[in-house]
Amino acid sequence: MNLSIDTECCIGCGACAQYCPGHVIAMDEEDRPYEKYPDDCWYCGVCQAECPENCIQILFPYLVR
Ligand code: SF4
Ligand code: SF4
After folding, report:
1. Structural domains in the chain?
2. Ligand 1 centre and the CA of 16: distance in Å?
3. Coil, strand, or helix at residue 1?
4. Which of 13, 16, 40, 59 could form a disulfide with 22 if both were Cys (CB 3.0 to 4.6 A apart)?
């Protein structure tokens, strides 16, 4: 898991899946995003930046000091 996606605040717009350059995110049958290919994420931040409702947080696997 590279992302925390708050499905309560998600409006199902699909922007995160559309703009992810690695095609990591897909939409399920209920128009909610999920990490389809989590190993392909390189933490670029595009999904977080493009979400109009600020529902996505990136979970970095390391601590930047
Ligand atoms: S951080 Fe970048 S590569 Fe990872 S899911 Fe978001 S948009 Fe895709
Ligand atoms: S961009 Fe945000 S509101 Fe739109 S589908 Fe993704 S998580 Fe939901």
Report:
1. 3-58 (3.30.70.20)
2. 8
3. coil
4. 40
